[in-house]
Design a protein that fits this description.
Layout (H helix, E strand, L loop, with lengths): L6 H10 L6 E7 L5 E6 L7 E10 L2 E3 L5 E7 L4 E8 L9 H15 L4 E5 L6 H13 L3 E2 L4 E5 L9
Parallel strand pairs: 6-7
Antiparallel strand pairs: 1-2, 2-3, 3-4, 3-5, 5-6, 7-9, 8-9
Length: 161
């Protein structure tokens, strides 16, 4: 758990993360003092990776009508295809999408993936596509054209013991 959480917050979080089949990836305190629990329900044999984030504020779980999440396909042992990032209008510009994508990057590095790639749908409005392009580029993704983006990963260096 993140060292920024006090003991009361850790106890509170532990009650919310006791979900069947859930693996907690990280617990972060956001800039606006909300606790973000980032978790997955993936099993080792699945080719799909779904990561979610729950938000806790003032000792209550904030469950939006549509969950925060990132949905990927593990295409092969080297590449993850980012199929969808679910951050809805009232959640934009609060850092939740950044948290989800950074956790995906960390997951990919820890599991030896070399590339994360994705596609922005042509059905998005021009303004939304512009925001997505800015979002992915600020996180280090290369924009190949109007729709495609990718990131080539480097394996994290582990310090010798």
């Amino acid at each position: 758990m993140n060292a920024m959480l006090n003991s009361m917050e850790k106890r509170l979080v532990s009650r919310f993360i006791k979900k069947r089949g859930t693996q907690v990836l990280n617990i972060i305190k956001s800039a606006d003092e909300k606790i973000v629990v980032h978790y997955t329900t993936r099993t080792e044999e699945s080719e799909y990776l779904h990561m979610y984030a729950d938000i806790i504020k003032n000792r209550r779980l904030i469950r939006p009508p549509l969950p925060l999440g990132i949905h990927c396909i593990l295409k092969n042992k080297d590449e993850i295809w980012l199929g969808r990032l679910d951050v809805y209008h009232h959640q934009i510009n609060k850092g939740y999408g950044t948290i989800l994508v950074k956790e995906l990057i960390q997951f990919a590095q820890e599991h030896g993936y070399k590339t994360i790639s994705g596609y922005m749908s042509a059905g998005e409005s021009a303004e939304h596509r512009s925001r997505l392009r800015h979002f992915y580029s600020k996180l280090g993704f290369e924009l190949q054209d109007a729709s495609n983006f990718s990131m080539h990963l480097h394996t994290p260096v582990v310090a010798p013991e």
